[in-house]
TrEMBL record:
Belongs to the PPR family. P subfamily. This is Pentatricopeptide repeat-containing protein. Keywords: Repeat. Pfam families: PPR (PF01535), PPR_2 (PF13041). InterPro entries: PPR_rpt, TPR-like_helical_dom_sf. It comes from Brassica carinata.
């Protein structure tokens, strides 16, 4: 761990052609190592110069790794620039890309930008699943408001999307943290209406509010 300079020396030897040649996996690993050490400029140099100069084409996995690493360094402008670059290179974003971006924007305090990204890019793309939904719900819960999270959850169901039990649990947990017992029960009713059954995590969350006997009496 932390031996990025040693790894870069090995990478340099590989680039001479005297040893086994690097591939996109090697290059992705190098960039991840650099980003983990806060060396964003060097990682972007690999992406923007080394990779094209050597005839490689980054995959969606490569772009996702770089975008994720940049967001972790709170370099959201650079991360979104790489996302734009990805599209121009003809590499389609996947659900993981969108989950990373939504999470990154929310963590860096850009909830409104995340909302616009959802409205303008993710939803029209048709490429979204429970992982993307849960990333957005977590962001709204932590950095937006419970009302925003509830509205988004209900909006998904109304639009015909299928949030899973994990998505519902995120919002139920926030209701529990806020002491909103009635709202938690309403969300459980809503999830059942949409074909999702409470799981063990749901019940553990609700134990924070009241015991199982109360739940049974209330028909939850």
């Amino acid at each position: 761990m932390g031996r990025v300079d040693d790894a870069m020396k090995v990478f340099g030897y590989m680039m001479t052609g005297k040893f086994c040649a690097p591939d996109t996996v090697t290059l992705t690993t190098v960039m991840c190592g650099l980003l983990s050490q806060g060396r964003a400029e060097e990682a972007l140099d690999v992406l923007n110069r080394v990779i094209p100069e050597n005839g490689f084409k980054p995959s969606v996995v490569t772009y996702n790794a770089v975008i994720c690493g940049l967001f972790k360094l709170r370099k959201e402008v650079e991360a979104m620039r790489v996302f734009d670059q990805m599209g121009k290179a003809g590499v389609s974003a996947d659900n993981t890309t969108y989950a990373i971006i939504i999470d990154g924007l929310c963590v860096t305090g850009q909830v409104d930008t995340a909302k616009r990204f959802w409205d303008d890019v993710i939803w029209p793309s048709g490429r979204h699943d429970a992982n993307v939904y849960s990333a957005f719900l977590k962001g709204l819960r932590r950095f937006g408001s419970l009302n925003d999270a509830c509205h988004f959850l209900y909006e998904l169901a109304d639009a015909g999307a299928v949030p899973n039990v994990v998505c519902y649990n995120i919002v139920i947990d926030e209701c529990s943290r806020s002491g909103l017992r009635r709202e938690a029960c309403q969300i459980i009713e809503e999830m059942r209406k949409n074909g999702q059954a409470p799981d063990a995590v749901t019940w553990r969350i609700l134990d924070k509010l009241h015991d199982s006997r109360t739940l049974a009496v209330e028909g939850v």
